[in-house]
Amino acid sequence: MDHQLERNKEIIRRFNYEFIQGGDRKVAEELIHPQFINRTVPAGAKGGDKQGTLDFIEIMRQAFPDITVEILMQVAEGDLVTTHKAFHGTHLGNWMGIAPTGRTISFRVIDILRIQDGQAIEHWSVRDNMALYQQITQNNG
């Protein structure tokens, strides 16, 4: 087993569990490269850098304060780590203009991150935004 590949996967696990789930901003500062680029953000939109990513996660944590991350699968090759994961939580804060509903949510994400010098420097993502939207806007009737 390649030790560098395992180290790269551990960087991403720590980011998910300690920062996204645990809220430890110091871990995010440690694990995200200063020149970080989020390639999923549309061209010209805000949030494609390190600060934008930190801000987005903070907004998500405010909307779903009990958020947990379930890593379903991880694959590493070269300097890339792909993670298939699920987020679970309760909608207790505003999310993209939708007032808190108190509903439990679960949605899946596939992230690809490039690691450089022990830090995430580049990111691509596919999120099941429709599943999340349906869960927090569904009619209870």
Can you count the beta strands?
Answer: 5
Q: What is the N-to-C order of secondary-structure elements (H for helix, E for strand)?
A: HHEHEEEEH
Average pLDDT metric: 93
Whole-number tally of structural domains: 1
Kindly provide the radius of gyration, computed on alpha-carbon positions and rounded to a whole number of angstroms. 15 Å
CATH class descriptor name: Alpha Beta
- pLDDT below 50 for ≥5 consecutive residues: which ranges? none
What's the short version?
By secondary structure, this protein is of the alpha+beta class. Helix content is 35%, strand content 35%.
Keywords:
alpha+beta, single chain, globular, five-stranded mixed β-sheet, 141 residues, Nuclear Transport Factor 2, Chain: A
